[in-house]
Amino acid sequence: MSSKPASTSKTALPADLSYEDARQELQQIIERIESGQIGLEQSIAQYERGVALYQHCKAIQEQVEQRFTDLTQQMQAETKKPS
Questions:
Q1: What is the pTM of this model?
Q2: What span, in angstroms and rounded, lies between the C-alpha atoms of 68 and 82?
Q3: What digits encode the pLDDT tens for the residues 3-41?
Q4: CB–CB of 60/19 below 8 Å?
Q5: Would you kindly state where each structural domain of the chain is located, as residue ranges?
Q6: CB 66 within 8 A of CB 58
């Protein structure tokens, strides 16, 4: 049971981690796993971190897409207003 808190703390990401930094780290993890540079246990830990990074990037993308949609709708609403 003590392994769950340990893996949670290993995969916890800083809230201010940028999309670009997360994406770069995820790419590095993929390269290390694919190249066989790390052992099985370390690969699993890196995979867990990679999943957390992927989820972080996906959440940021969704926020950006929603912001873009909101701004587009706002712009369209303003252009439809009678002068």
A1: 0.75
A2: 24
A3: 333 334 457 899 899 999 999 999 999 999 999 989 999
A4: yes
A5: 16-80
A6: no
